[in-house]
Amino acid sequence: MKNDCRHIETIMVHGSKSYDEKTGAISFPIYQSATFRHEGLNQSTGFDYSRTSNPTRDELEKTIAKLEGGTKGLAFSTGMAAIDNIARLFSPKDNIIVSDDLYGGTYRLFEEIYKIYGIETSYVDTTKVEDIEKHINSNTRAIFIETPSNPLMKISDIKAISTLGKKFGILTIVDNTFLTPYFQKPLDLGADIVVHSGTKFLGGHNDTLAGLIVVNREDLAEKLSFFQNSIGAVLSPFDSWLILRGIKTLALRLEKQQQNALTIANWLKTVDVIDKVYYPGLMEHEGHKLCLEQSKGFGSMISFTVKDSYIIPKVLEKVKIILFAESLGGVESLITYPFSQTHAAIPEEVREKLGVTNKLLRLSVGVENVDDLIKDLEEALTY
């Protein structure tokens, strides 16, 4: 079936094919097979071996490509595996400019793995396009940004950075995990590659790991597909199905989560023990205007600092509805402590400089009743 719908909510529900053409199944089947029978020599159904291609993963890859407005999607076992696949595009002595405020696991990849193989990294405040340009040199091959960034919710200008990248003939790579294609479409703004931790909002239920890449250039699609097949860190059929199922309710979940997040962010501003709230939906946020221009939503991630670090352990012990756990983007609200958890791989002096201090908490707002969430936070923050 050719799916010609124009609205993203409909694409999310129906996916690339809407149903399985062979059986009519509305829920796309889990093709739990490692290999596929050939009719004869040099004859194939289009599927030979699941590392190379699997029908369930193929449906997910085509769905995410359609949602992001790209030509090719690729699904991996984790978000880190997806980023690692992108890194295969680069060679020793190549330089990559990276957002200075980014997920600690990505920092660890660049600093403890890629550096060994000679890939150089420059950490830059990518909210300042002029600073990015100052760091571009003869061996710079890409700009890698998170926007909003993790955990300080900094907003980088995707269109301006992509224009700069094209001017110098370098790639623009955007981690779109926090906003997803429902709220933000980097390829439409000029980016070359979009990457997701599908574990987060796309899956949406804290029950599976996944990574996704989308590109709109055939040369990149060909290279990344070759790496995907050769290295083999692909997403399993069952996990592909879980992500497809999660995407069906993505719009509904994000709207509710964002509504809750804006209410909670405004409430946090009134709490005496809170020093600062980081949420792009707040008008005073430095990136608020830019986020309005390049996105159609602010997401549901909030970070905030407390005035005294001694209350951090007490808050994490006292929350009951909000769960003290790593990860984000699921229907359950989660709170985490970036300083010693998600960003522990970053040296302490760097964390302190960026603002990832021992007073910072990160909140992933779920779909629960917002009054229950505020009451839970109020009790945890009261001394």
List the helices and strands and how they pair.
Layout: H1 8-14, H2 55-68, E1 72-76, H3 79-87, E2 95-99, H4 104-113, E3 120-124, H5 129-135, E4 140-146, H6 158-168, E5 171-175, H7 180-183, E6 193-197, E7 211-215, H8 218-231, H9 237-248, H10 250-268, E8 274-278, H11 288-294, E9 301-306, H12 312-318, E10 323-324, E11 334-336, H13 348-354, E12 360-364, H14 370-380
Parallel strand pairs: 2-3, 2-4, 4-5, 5-6, 10-11
Antiparallel strand pairs: 1-7, 6-7, 8-9, 9-12, 11-12
C-alpha Rg, in Å? Answer: 21 Å
Helix content: 25-40%
CATH superfamily of the largest domain: Type I PLP-dependent aspartate aminotransferase-like (Major domain)
The description of the largest β-sheet is: 7 strands, mixed
Q: CATH architecture of the largest domain, please?
A: 3-Layer(aba) Sandwich
Q: In words, what does this structure look like?
A:
The protein has 14 helices and twelve strands. The chain is an alpha/beta fold and 383 residues long. It folds into two domains: 241 residues, Type I PLP-dependent aspartate aminotransferase-like (Major domain) (Aspartate Aminotransferase, domain 2); 131 residues, Aspartate Aminotransferase, domain 1, CATH 3.90.1150.10. Strands 1-7-6-5-4-2-3 form a seven-stranded mixed sheet, sandwiched between helices. A five-stranded mixed sheet has the order 8-9-12-11-10, with helices on one face. Helix 1 packs antiparallel against helix 9, helix 2 packs parallel to helix 9 and helix 12 packs across helix 14. It is globular and about 75 Å long. The termini are far apart.
